[in-house]
Design a protein that fits this description.
518 residues, mainly alpha, Growth Hormone, Chain: A, 3 domains, 20 helices
């Protein structure tokens, strides 16, 4: 008698393998990121053109707000694991709703600043909860697809929301903030009725342990050197929320894009918020292809190519004022971003101390703190000093349909070349780091410690100069410059204190070990 083989079990649809909490988390990510990128796509223009804040003032505000969104997850993750994800989601969405709503109701610098800091606190608390939920509601077999859905939720929110905000601002810019507040407030409903805490690890970190880990990482000069080098690329990135938006409004004839869209039967006005749309749209279209192309390649070469592409995007901005070339420049930068950044985390796993990879991965985001604090302030100050005085003459030329005056064109080119060169410096720094500092040895650590002392000292010297300039070398106290000097002094002084303290601890430890050996 012939034995009939049993039919192979039908393969389960991967979409059906995820629990409800997984989809709820991605829904909340979509709305939260939509609120965040939708508002930030317009924030710099709103603060300058509607509330009439100076670019330098906007740079100070954005630098602190964006930095807080990167610092917040350190404590947000620890609090969520101790108190529960669902409870912290309710806190996060409450702060987000309050922050956005208040920012849309106030028009004084201090109150807008405070409102956006409340928003940034909520955003920082929210981030680790969703990524943690995705990790705990997927398996080894489904995690790749699960995180793919998660990243698509982020970019889909960043793509759709600015288009909606573009329509809302036609009624009032305040509606942009109210919409962001409403989206976050609505997310309290799924947090209350649909979301369930995933199974959390039994041992959770106390806040003291979090601070201890942070100090350990910050004292590692070799790791911090890499963070500072890679942060140069993120100085470029944060121009997309400041100087790039002002440049589009002040110096680009946007009518060719408007006419093209009108030819398609679409009523459209190319404006600042579409920079974020181009960035997210490029990533949505190409990220799968790029991921497959670089999947099996070593991290450093891929990062190098990505940063060079990013610098190339700014080079395009430097060489032409054509609206379509502007779009190309943003798209090229976005291509560089999606190429370089995923491999950055792979590189962290290679250069971090082998007994602390997990801890170091938790602080890999420090590039965003440095990039936002320096990038937002540097770009705003440079724009205000170099380009703002030229804007009236550029407006006259754009209105008349004539070419920009030669001296204006030269300064515009120089402005963007500074950032393109900074990208090239980042590439050179990464290659040198990989050659001389990638291995974790006493020699490389000592060498990195000496270099970081020099970097921190430069920050202190620059901070002292601007501190003196703001108080004594100007006809009146320059409050914004004073704040920027304090940022530099904080980065430099804090870095010196932590590094020198770490060196003493290391020397004491090695000395005691030497006595025990004897």
């Amino acid at each position: 008698m012939t034995e009939i083989p049993a039919a192979a079990p039908k393969k389960k649809n991967i979409l059906l393998s995820f629990p409800r909490t997984f989809w709820t988390a991605n829904l909340m990510e979509l709305f939260e990121r939509g609120a965040y990128y939708g508002m930030n796509a317009l924030l710099a223009v709103y603060l300058k053109d509607v509330l009439h804040f100076r670019e330098q003032s906007v740079g100070v505000l954005q630098g602190f707000v964006y930095a807080l969104t990167y610092i917040g997850p350190i404590f947000g993750g620890a609090l969520a694991e101790r108190l529960g994800y669902r409870k912290m989601l309710l806190v996060a969405f409450s702060l987000l709703s309050l922050g956005y709503f208040a920012a849309g109701n106030f028009d004084t610098y201090g109150l807008v600043f405070l409102s956006l800091l409340v928003m940034a606190t909520g955003s920082g608390l929210f981030k680790p909860i969703i990524s943690g939920t995705i990790a705990r509601t997927t398996t080894k077999e489904t995690s790749g697809f699960g995180f793919g859905v998660y990243y698509w939720s982020i970019n889909l929110g960043a793509f759709i929301a600015p288009l909606i905000m573009s329509w809302l601002k036609g009624f009032s810019y305040r509606y942009v903030f109210f919409a962001a507040a409403a989206w976050c407030f609505l997310m309290l409903l799924p947090a209350l009725f649909l979301y369930k805490d995933p199974e959390l690890p039994k041992s959770t970190k106390r806040i003291g342990q979090v601070l201890s880990d942070a100090l350990k990482v910050l004292r590692d000069s070799r790791f911090m050197l890499m963070i500072f080098v890679y942060s140069c690329f993120w100085i470029l990135y944060f121009q997309n929320f400041g100087s790039v938006l002002w440049y589009l409004r002040d110096f680009i004839d946007r009518s060719p894009v408007d006419r093209f869209m009108a030819g398609l039967g679409i009523s459209f006005r190319f404006d600042a918020e579409h920079v974020t749309v181009i960035n997210a749209g490029t990533i949505i279209l190409l990220v799968v292809l790029i991921s497959r192309l670089v999947k099996n390649l070593k991290p450093l070469p891929v990062m190098t190519v990505g940063v060079l592409l990013g610098a190339g995007g700014f080079l395009v901005l430097a060489l032409t004022r054509n609206a379509w070339m502007f779009v190309l420049g943003i798209a090229v930068f976005s291509l560089g971003e999606m190429t370089a950044h995923p491999k950055y985390y792979s590189y962290i796993g290679i250069v971090a101390p082998k007994d602390g990879v997990a801890v170091y991965m938790g602080y890999a985001f420090l590039y965003g703190v440095i990039g936002s604090l320096i990038g937002s302030n540097f770009g705003a100050v440079l724009y205000e000093r170099m380009l703002t005085p030229l804007a009236p003459r550029a407006a006259e030329a754009l209105k008349a349909g004539t070419a920009l005056p030669p001296d204006v064109a030269v300064k515009l080119r120089l402005f963007w070349l500074i950032f393109a060169v900074l990208g090239a410096v980042c590439v050179a720094g990464m290659l040198l780091y990989n050659k001389f500092f990638a291995e974790d040895t006493p020699r490389t650590n000592r060498r990195a410690w000496s270099i970081m002392l020099g970097v921190y000292s430069l920050f202190v010297l620059a901070g002292l100069y601007f501190f003196v300039e703001s108080l004594f070398l100007s006809p009146q106290v320059q409050v914004r410059t004073l704040v920027q000097s304090l940022i530099l002094l904080g980065l430099g002084g804090g870095g010196l204190t932590i590094s020198l303290g770490g060196k003493k601890t290391a020397d004491a430890t090695s000395g005691s070990q030497g006595k025990e050996d004897r």
